[in-house]
Write a structure and sequence with these properties.
With about 725 residues, the protein is mainly β. The protein is built from six helices and 71 strands. It folds into three domains: about 290 residues, 3 Solenoid (Pectate Lyase C-like); about 250 residues, Pectate Lyase C-like (3 Solenoid); about 120 residues, no CATH class.
Length: about 725
Amino acid sequence: MQMKAFAIFAAAVGFAACALGETVTAEPSLITTREGLAAIADNLAGTYALGADIDLGGTDWPPIGNGSAPFTGKFHGNGHAIRNLACTNSLTGADYRGLFGCVSNATIECVSVSGTVAGKQYVGGLVGCITGGTVISNCIASVEVAATNSYAGGLVGACAGGSAVNRIVDCRADGFVSGSGMVGGFIGYVYAPAVISNCVARGDVRSAASYYGGFVGRLAHDDATISDCWCSGAVWGTGGDIGSFIGHHVRGTNVNCAVSAYANGPRPFCGNDPAITGGRLTQAEIKALSDGWPEAPKRAKSSAMIPISTQEELLAVTNNLSGSYVLTADIDFDGETIEPIGNYRTPFKGEFYGQNHRISNFYINTTDKYAGLFGKINGGRVSGVQVEDGHVTGGPADSGLEDVGVGGLAGKIDSKSLVDGCWFVGEVWNTNSVNAGGFVGYTADAPVILRCCVESYVANESGKSYTGGFVGNHGGGFIADSSAQSSVDSSDGYGGNGGDNVGGFAGGVSKAARIATSWCYSYVSSDGGHYRGAFVGLASSGLVTGSYYEDTENDLKAAGTSSGSDDYDGITPLGDEEMRRKESFTAFDFDDVWKIDEETYPYLRTLFSAYELWLNDVGITDEPKPEDMPKPEDMVNGIPAGVRYVFGIDPSIGPADLAEPLLDITFDANGKPCVKLPPQANTEGVAVTVLASEDLVDWTHAVEVPFDAVTGRYDPGIDPVPPKMFFKYRILIDGN
């Protein structure tokens, strides 16, 4: 899929067809207030136009129109914005939720909406349900959408009923969408004639039941066509038929549609029909297509998240395992023994965003079926969690169990869970059962694990089967763009034979599972166990592709066999020098995912992305050696020391020997940076102001940051939060 396929759309969105002040027909009623907008309910067949932006104030909004009395008129937004929409609180049990609840044979154009919408079913960021030949064009919804039942979409909940063709063109949905089946980043369910073209969904999608996709949950009408559309959100949950673009396809057509190759990894384009495929857009292509648009809201920065900054708050996650959490500080347990988050009876089903903060120095010792920082993740998402100096020991007393697992980050990951951007450094001990892995012990169903790495010692003391440097028993789902540097020991400790199915990356890979574009450097020992390989112990052909390992043990090849090990078509052995060269890794994406230099093996960009951003901004093309780059131990609350330096000091004026940043940087729960000056001496006649810029090199467009006397901090008040923000202070002495 080439980016140029969507060039027309990139120019069209942004209200190119409906500039402010455009004259509309039928002498519309001009609306400039919340009261005027609500009064549409008195005449649902009228023609209306916005004359100004409207702030709804975040109080309960009664949607315009419903299933028995839909809006049938015309609504011209004239490029204006409606902010702080809130269909929540006492109205969450209702159907037909959105700015508009239900519309039929209506026209809605040129309006952007932001806020939150919640309901039972037919829930959308702009409209809950459309029917009867409705036309929606040039609209944007940046709305967090939540349905307790089905039919939920970022822009429209469902397109339903009738023989007239409904049209949605040149529209965008940016918000997070959740529901229980038939959930889509753009539209939940299409079961009426429809043409949806030149549209985009950029929000994440979560579902507690079947039929969910990054763009549409279910497409089920012969006369429905989706063309020239794309989506870039992540998709996860429980239930069947999950697709990166379409969850479930019954009837209908998609033409020239594409998904982000980064967000969902190898998740199928269409959940129930592998024959339906689409293009895959790189991060660079998506960035170009989104040029001029604001950043899509980051789920980890949602104000609805529960912030975690202490040991007590982290352990309290077990009280609500379906909640949504964001880590706002590093947490060091100082060698304490803790219980896993979630277990086999009550797994973790919620969301946990680490924001690259560290959870460190803990011990877990349990006889539960699943042992890890997270015992079991079932249909949940865990993202950006860095675990350092973790010690996990587990293994149920009933050694005959097969559905068990011991791993660094998780004992078991199953259903349609999503785990991405995580890191485990530590040791894993399985004392009495099968399935031990440095990152995860056991996977099942169809989870996706993306861009994760592990450095660990993995020991299966019981001498039982399925031990791997990254995953013990990969029973289902996808692992991609991941790495393992591990010592893997499956000896029984008594001089007998070790366990079967032992590998440097994976102990075993079932026919329902896949591993792609990953590497390992591991020492493997099992005292003569069967199926022992340098990368994978037991795997049928074709299950592992585009992967690599360092060939340090001459007696072990890529994959295990009953009597030794052998080559594997999708796994390439490399020597030490080859492991340090980009050209050796022909299957890897070195633009968005990986980096490499002659001093290192491939490492994930997510680990050092903030620091690399700074290097690019200040024009440093020859990167410092890896040993000079910030490491996790050089971080303060997850902020690399190098980045703290950049945020704190303008290199052209700051003293080189300053021990601490000139500006104290903190981030609120939404990720917004605020700064506070250290105590200033000799301030008589001195005026200090703080400047903020999104470009470190060019301060021409820097703005002065307001001072908040209550907090004592300089708060830029920016919304949405930009992807980067730099600060410096300006000193004026007697006005000069």
